[in-house]
Amino acid sequence: MRIGVVTFPGSLDDGDAARAVRLAGADAVRLWHGDPDLHNVDAVVLPGGFSYGDALRCGAIARFAPVMESLIDAARGGLPVLGICNGFQILCEAHLLPGALTRNQHLHFRNRDQWLRVEATNTAWTNTFQPEQEILIPVKNGEGCYVADQRTLDALEAEGRVVARYVRGNPNGSQRDIAAVTNEAGNVVGIMPHPEHAVETLTGPSLDGLGFFTSVLRALAGASAGAQHAGGHQ
Amino acid sequence: MARVVVDVMLKPEILDPQGQAVANALPRLGVTDVSSVRIGRRIEIEFAGEPDLDRAREIADKLLANPVIEDFSIKVEDDAKAEVA
């Protein structure tokens, strides 16, 4: 499996994301913001950082990068996409996910290990977790406060699209403690904390982050087995 | 010079922690009669020719403002004619 990791000017966590992909057992394919070619990847990670220096709003400029034109089409067609931190902001700016990420309510940059409760385990990126499983991964953001109008929040909850919530403390004031959401199809997930920083005992607080990357491999293996099965009738 | 000014503000229902921080600092200046401060962004767009309000609105809607959390208004700076998006 080939998992693409996009580098924008100002991306910080693209190296760690690629490493997490490799530790999960896939090939990490580096994608460049200025290149619209997705190089036949099976899924894409938009990593954390400060793309384009967070000019205007976080993710607002990156959303118009050449790679994003292809990625937006591919995501609407079902390509699994995980946006982490700045990647989540980019997915919201691209309208692939609802809502927006705004300044932390307390105005402080928050950097700590954070407990989350995984609530949706039917997405391409969370299918190896148990429902209600609590995981510990780092959070580090200044603009991670998730906001949306009440109707959107109600719909996300009713449709089971709140992927993870902050537990044991909300680090940024996100509405309804939302840490991660998905689109209707479940192939696009945005998460504010950093699963790619929790994949090795040497550097992470747990190995819980690895589950996001093994999940997409499982989803892709399932999709590919289904395709082969369908192909068998021809 | 044809200049179009776009003002971007957080929607009223969106909390503005920066504005609150400023409001909370005002008593230190001896100002005690301010009940609310909200912070927005002013963007000046200069067209090569005539100011194009439709084009400015498109720029504001697609890039300058995030309609999920922000409203914007547009005006040509020379005359006071303003229109709200």
From TrEMBL, chain B:
It comes from the Bacteria. It is an enzyme of class 6 (ligase). GO terms for cellular component: cytoplasm. Pfam families: PurS (PF02700). It catalyses: N(2)-formyl-N(1)-(5-phospho-beta-D-ribosyl)glycinamide + L-glutamine + ATP + H2O = 2-formamido-N(1)-(5-O-phospho-beta-D-ribosyl)acetamidine + L-glutamate + ADP + phosphate + H(+). Pathway: Purine metabolism; IMP biosynthesis via de novo pathway; 5-amino-1-(5-phospho-D-ribosyl)imidazole from N(2)-formyl-N(1)-(5-phospho-D-ribosyl)glycinamide: step 1/2. GO terms for molecular function: ATP binding; phosphoribosylformylglycinamidine synthase activity. GO terms for biological process: 'de novo' IMP biosynthetic process. Its EC number is 6.3.5.3. It is found in: Cytoplasm. Gene3D superfamilies: Phosphoribosylformylglycinamidine synthase subunit PurS (3.30.1280.10). Keywords: ATP-binding, Cytoplasm, Ligase, Nucleotide-binding, Purine biosynthesis. NCBIfam families: phosphoribosylformylglycinamidine synthase subunit PurS, PRK05974.1. Belongs to the PurS family. Part of the phosphoribosylformylglycinamidine synthase complex involved in the purines biosynthetic pathway. Catalyzes the ATP-dependent conversion of formylglycinamide ribonucleotide (FGAR) and glutamine to yield formylglycinamidine ribonucleotide (FGAM) and glutamate. The FGAM synthase complex is composed of three subunits. PurQ produces an ammonia molecule by converting glutamine to glutamate. PurL transfers the ammonia molecule to FGAR to form FGAM in an ATP-dependent manner. Part of the FGAM synthase complex composed of 1 PurL, 1 PurQ and 2 PurS subunits. PANTHER family: PHOSPHORIBOSYLFORMYLGLYCINAMIDINE SYNTHASE SUBUNIT PURS. This is Phosphoribosylformylglycinamidine synthase subunit PurS. The gene is purS.
